[in-house]
Design a protein that fits this description.
Length: 598
């Protein structure tokens, strides 16, 4: 049958409309192809496409496959850079994520970590214009503005002596809200009431620390102060503190115990920290009491101490302290100083806050994701001598085996052997492996698997401070570390650490695979690739990582080190050491985002 030919005016107009659309779409594709291939737009879109692919969490299988390839050494390209707006990213303190959570007891400002499959597998870049940090001790007084160009604190607090911008630097005059004339004169005043200079006090906790003028000044007195504050409206106060070379940690006192053992600190200090100590039936004061060593000192400056319109809060604060038998040493202006009793609190059966002693099932040193308790820790609930006056003064306490080492079988012998072992190992690091310990190049140090703190103790003569991390699933030996006058925290290395990027000059870990394994098992709870990427986030450009483990593990770590842009060498262990170990020493390269990747 033949086709019926119609004149043009009689043909189907809808058929012509469809042909027009198809033709237009075809020519648009051709135009887009030429734009992508022959113009800068293509580079820009390609970069954003890589970032979109990189940050996608919709396909965990793809991520798992990449991790597997990296561990086997079959992925020969470096891990991609994260986007430019991630230069200050802290995965567990992400305001965009945590702002959706409950405000009750500041729950939303505590740690809340994404699942590994929700975490981008990328390397945090430094900010534009980043420079190798000013070295210690000059960094105590000035840092590069370009390394953290956040002016909010300087604008808001400059008149109180916190910090100010001066040329290419931020300058730190040493002031604070409660001591605008400088922390030195404030500490001198405290010295009239508490023994600051004779070695009685060594470990201190500064709550809500600002830029840590207090902690920085206490270093001159031989007191090691761990300063903490949350990630807050000032954006980067802890980042400034760490850039200065002062011990610090991002932390919020909210619904959980702070990640420290019981009776850790000789001195706890709050200068306008605005913690509501008597709220929630004095739960926060009870947590401070758990952390404060018997015979230790509590200093609160600012509200509510003799503060206008806060008479009730000040009365309640004194009442809580009396209920726990704290001795009020002095009230000097807006500063109150208490001393904790050496023995058990004289907590009465009845008090207005409903406080009671904890029962025998409570382990006061269990503090990793542990909900705050409203009960008071008995001093007698823990064996050993740990009160002020019963432990040696600094520096003798560094090398004296604490009685709390007996938490492990043959703990005293283990302690002494560990101290000798790390003295040999650190000497080998310096003299044979040429690790720059003891030079101005290294100030902020982390030991990721600290045990008794032997590595840190071996650095006692170096101009460093060490964050001793005790993995939360290993024996809880952090109390021993504090008893010997060092500082540290509990942490689980299958999660990111609570610090800003580019924090540490040197990161050390002995037995890296053991800190991600299930206790008593050969199975891992997470993977070495994510851990190495997290180490990279914490390490400063040109910083050093020292890892010791079996040859098989070190070979795997070396493959991953290449992917995270580190130059690495594998070394034999020191001759005196037993067992099968190699030592990897790697340096983080100083790379920056290119225009096409930013």
């Amino acid at each position: 049958m033949g086709h019926l030919n119609l004149p043009p005016s009689k043909r189907n107009p809808r058929q012509w409309k469809l042909l027009d659309i198809v033709s237009a779409f075809f020519f648009a594709l051709v135009l887009l192809f030429f734009l992508l291939v022959f113009t800068p737009l293509g580079d820009s879109l390609a970069a954003s496409g890589r970032q979109a692919l990189l940050l996608s969490t919709s396909d965990p299988k793809q991520r798992h496959r990449l991790v597997e390839l990296l561990e086997l050494g079959h992925h020969h390209q470096p891990i991609e850079a994260c986007p430019a707006d991630s230069v200050d990213h802290m995965p567990c303190e992400d305001p965009r994520r945590n702002s959706q959570l409950s405000r009750e007891m500041n729950f939303y400002r505590e740690r809340h970590c994404p699942l590994p499959d929700e975490t981008p597998l990328c390397l945090i870049p430094p900010p534009l214009g980043y420079k190798i940090p000013v070295q210690w001790p000059e960094s105590l007084h000035k840092i590069w503005h370009s390394n953290m160009p956040h002016n909010k604190i300087a604008d808001r607090k400059g008149h109180q002596g916190w910090m100010k911008e001066e040329g290419p630097y931020f300058i730190f005059p040493g002031g604070g809200t409660m001591f605008p004339d400088g922390a030195a004169s404030y500490i001198e005043k405290l010295g009239q009431y508490i023994p600051i200079t004779d070695g009685t006090l060594r470990t201190a906790l500064d709550m809500g620390c600002g830029v840590a003028s207090f902690g920085g000044s206490m270093l001159k007195e031989g007191i090691l102060t761990l300063s903490f504050a949350p990630r807050d409206s000032h954006k980067a106060q802890i980042q400034f503190v760490l850039e200065r070379g002062i011990p610090a940690f991002v932390l919020m006192l909210g619904t959980r115990r702070l990640p420290f053992p019981a009776f850790a600190f000789d001195l706890i200090h709050c200068s306008r920290c605005l913690i509501p100590f008597t709220a929630y039936n004095a739960t926060y004061f009870v947590e401070v009491d758990r952390l404060l060593r018997p015979g230790g000192y509590l200093v609160i400056s600012g509200p509510p101490v003799q503060w206008p319109k806060q008479d009730k809060e000040w009365t309640d604060l004194q009442a809580v302290a009396r209920a726990l038998c704290y001795e009020l040493i002095a009230v000097d202006g807006n500063t109150a100083i208490w001393k904790k009793p050496d023995g058990d609190s004289c907590l009465p059966n009845q008090n207005e806050f409903g406080l009671e002693f904890c029962d025998g099932s409570n382990d006061p040193s269990n503090a990793w994701y542990f909900k705050l308790k409203k009960c008071v820790t008995k001093t007698s609930s823990m064996n050993g001598e740990y009160a002020i006056g019963t432990i040696p003064k600094w520096p003798d306490r560094l090398t004296t085996a604490p009685s709390r080492a007996l938490v492990l079988k043959n703990g005293i012998d283990l302690f002494e052997a560990d101290t000798r072992r790390w003295a040999r190992r650190v000497a080998y690091y310096k003299n044979t492996l040429n690790v720059k310990l003891g030079t101005p190049a290294i100030r902020n140090v982390m030991d990721m698997n600290a045990f008794f703190g032997g590595f840190a103790a071996a650095l006692k003569s170096d101009p460093v401070w060490v964050m001793n991390v005790v993995p939360a699933r290993k024996p809880l030996t952090l109390d021993v570390i504090y008893d010997r006058g060092l500082i540290g925290v509990y942490h689980d290395w299958c999660e990111p650490f609570s610090t800003y990027p580019r924090t540490y000059d040197l990161i050390h870990v002995a037995g890296i695979e053991s800190i991600i394994k299930l206790p008593g098992s050969s199975k891992s709870r997470c993977n070495l690739v994510d851990l190495m990427v997290e180490i990279d986030r914490m390490l400063r450009p040109e910083g050093t990582v020292v890892i010791r483990d079996s040859p098989e593990v070190i070979e795997k770590v070396a493959r991953i080190a290449h992917a995270v842009r580190r130059s690495a060498t594998i070394n034999d262990k020191e001759p005196e050491s037993h067992g099968r170990e190699n030592i990897l020493v790697a340096t983080k390269t100083f790379w920056q985002l290119t225009s096409s990747s930013s």
